[in-house]
Specification:
Elements: H1 8-22, H2 26-33, H3 49-53, H4 58-83, H5 85-100, H6 113-123, H7 125-142, H8 145-162, H9 169-182, H10 184-192
Helix pairs in contact: 1-4, 1-5, 2-4, 4-5, 4-6, 5-6, 6-7, 7-8, 8-9
Length: 201
Amino acid sequence: MPVFETALPILILWAVIGYGFGSIPFGLLLTKAMGLGNLREIGSGNIGTTNVLRTGSKAAAALTLLLDGGKGAAAVLLARFLAGEDTAQLAGLAAFIGHCFPIWLKFKGGKGVATFLGLILALAWPVGIACCATWLVAAAISRISSLGALISAASSAVWAFLLGFSSLMSLAIILALMVFLRHKENIARLSDGTEPRIGQK
């Protein structure tokens, strides 16, 4: 994270705004609006893209991916435009936390991968593209979405360093640790070979 130069009340304001953006449960809202059932009762019960895909609707899954990524990007870009770079990073982190722990769903949210990618793209698009490419390659080879997400998150700080965005490294490490914590059950299933593959219900 950068050294904060913005006044504390402004930082708090943008943390709240970022959290508000992140806490919008697009997967849940879309599946209800499209008549696909209660996402909480489908597959893993998670509100993210991978579980939305288990409804059988690729359109709903694609929209969830875009909107969950977009809310992270929106929080970053708006904060950067109105309050500066340090506030943008804080708003991005808050958006990620909001997705994972939305107040509207009793703090039981998603795992944050799309929001993570969206906010990284907005903060430093070369790093974001590298992380997205890493996820795509890892997921395509393994056919396991969670493995792609974990490898992408783990690589984010490395990409930030290699591509000249060292100010992003601390945030990338924090986000990667949170992604791993949110995927602890997936990691357990990966270790015993029972993690579902992409498209598997």
